[in-house]
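Dear H.,

Thanks for agreeing to be a second pair of eyes. The structure we're designing against is below in token form, covering all 517 positions.
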């Protein structure tokens, strides 16, 4: 396999680059280049066991079918092959550490194997995430090895939880909770999307929240596969245009650019400072056309506090407010708008370079109209620097303001704006800001919280009845269930928590050693 020729470079780099959204999951800090697999050639090694009622042969077929949603995108140069001879073992909680890569065991970076593990009884999930999570975690996947400059991915892994799948004879999940085959198929496609380099997107959020009917086949087709939440897995499994643009930007950029137009620009706040973490969207009257890019996603940055992210003060050094919208059709008219990223999309379900929180004092603004006359195939429509009415810093009461006053959040009231945009020199701009300690525990809990919003009391009862892990250092309780804190290190992994899809960007788990006879 090709990875063997660059292992020396991989061994010197174990920390993951920054997670981004509406496109690449990692970006090289020194260049702002999106990370991708070399030559678009990826080999996956499914294990030798079963997944609920599905045999290994059936799971191999299922993986082949579901990864094809990515490799069949028109114009793509991406090959994913399954090497069925690499792992013939039935991987369980007793031997998964032979294949799993984390900060305490990085041997898997040198074995030229990208494992796909079927956690039939969910004991691996329980061991990694804490007991109780085996009922809500569907899977996790992502790249875990890079070349020294982070521009090339060289190793990855995927784990899928089969315990609560309908028909699993070993299921017996509390409360009668089950996942369907559609849920499994969609989870495979979404998580493999992370492994090949894609992050979450907020495209068509209004449609996801209220506009489509999951009981009507095809009504939710325009919700992206990489949306952080599963709305209708049967429809959502097919990549939306936003998904296609994201993957073609990694594995088919020249072909896409030749047939479409590109819109570029750079956002500043009301005081002329770079405005990072705004969701820039190109839309038409048809939701199928929506394309997004979070400003500053491909910025050059440093990670001065080594937390795996660049949303702290002073860490973004250039292109902090820049955006690039690719894949626009020359025959259509687009409205380009800047929108805030939903405050719920933080930590594991983050959208954009802001991970610890999202911006305050920002509002929806129209930036430009791109017509067929200004959108020419193979060309770029450069919008230059666009000044917005949003405050890229902290907003507070206008009384006694020493900064700039205005209606920065669009609520009709006058506020005071101070500080700078995320990652740029100045004060914090984030809401729901977390300390490092809090951030470590919220990764799993964020998914449980969002799952609870979907399931309500049944999930509360499940978690309350579960026997959960505790930490000797500290823990936090949710529905009578204590979740482990301080068990993470700065590595990258992505996890689907129940019907909410969580990407644990920048984190890995320290596992507990288990003795098996």
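And this is the sequence the design step returned. I haven't edited it by hand at all.
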């Amino acid at each position: 396999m090709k990875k063997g020729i660059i292992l020396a470079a991989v061994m010197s780099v174990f920390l993951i680059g920054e997670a981004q959204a509406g496109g690449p999951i990692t970006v090289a800090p020194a260049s702002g280049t999106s990370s991708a697999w070399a030559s678009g050639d990826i080999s996956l090694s499914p294990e030798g066991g079963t997944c609920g009622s599905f045999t290994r042969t059936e799971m191999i077929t299922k993986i082949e079918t579901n990864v094809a949603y990515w490799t069949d995108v028109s114009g793509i140069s991406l090959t994913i092959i399954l090497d069925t001879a690499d792992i013939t073992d039935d991987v369980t909680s007793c031997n998964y550490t032979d294949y799993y890569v984390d900060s305490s065991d990085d041997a898997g970076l040198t074995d030229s194997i990208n494992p796909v593990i079927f956690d039939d009884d969910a004991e691996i999930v329980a061991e990694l995430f804490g007991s109780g999570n085996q009922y809500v975690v569907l899977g996790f996947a992502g790249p875990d090895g890079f070349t020294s400059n982070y521009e090339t991915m060289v190793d990855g892994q995927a784990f899928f939880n089969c315990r609560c799948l309908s028909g699993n004879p070993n299921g017996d999940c509390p409360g009668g909770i089950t996942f369907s085959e559609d849920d499994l198929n969609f989870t495979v496609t979404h998580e493999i999307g992370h492994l090949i380099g894609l992050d979450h997107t907020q495209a068509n959020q209004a449609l996801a929240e209220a506009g489509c009917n999951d009981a009507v086949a095809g009504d939710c087709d325009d919700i992206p596969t990489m949306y952080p939440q599963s709305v209708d897995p049967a429809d959502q499994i097919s990549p939306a245009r936003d998904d296609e643009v994201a993957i073609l930007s990694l594995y088919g950029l020249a072909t896409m650019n030749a047939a479409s137009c590109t819109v570029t620009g750079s956002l500043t706040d009301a005081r002329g400072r770079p405005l990072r973490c705004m969701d820039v969207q190109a839309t038409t009257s048809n939701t199928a056309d929506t394309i997004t890019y979070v400003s500053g996603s491909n910025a050059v940055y440093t990670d001065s506090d080594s937390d795996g992210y660049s949303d702290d003060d002073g860490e973004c050094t250039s292109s902090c407010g820049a955006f690039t919208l690719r894949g626009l059709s020359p025959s259509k008219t687009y409205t380009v708008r800047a929108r805030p990223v939903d405050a719920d999309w933080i930590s594991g379900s983050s959208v954009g370079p802001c991970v610890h929180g999202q911006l305050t004092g920002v509002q929806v603004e129209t930036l430009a109209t791109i017509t067929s006359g200004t959108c020419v195939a193979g060309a770029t429509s450069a919008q230059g620097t666009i000044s917005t009415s949003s405050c890229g810093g902290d907003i507070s009461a206008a009384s006694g303001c020493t900064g700039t006053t205005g209606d920065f959040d669009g609520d009709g009231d006058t506020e005071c704006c101070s500080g700078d945009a995320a990652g740029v020199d100045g004060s914090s701009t984030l809401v729901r800001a977390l300390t490092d300690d809090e951030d470590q525990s919220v990764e799993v809990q964020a998914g449980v919280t969002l799952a609870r919003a979907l399931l309500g009391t049944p999930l509360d009862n499940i978690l309350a009845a579960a026997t959960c892990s505790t930490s000797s250092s500290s823990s936090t309780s949710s529905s009578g269930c204590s979740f482990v804190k301080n068990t993470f290190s700065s590595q990258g992994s992505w996890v689907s928590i129940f019907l909410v899809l969580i990407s644990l960007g920048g984190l890995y788990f320290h596992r507990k050693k288990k003795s098996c006879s």
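Two observations from my side: The longest strand covers residues 137-146. The radius of gyration is 22 Å.

Warmly,
E.
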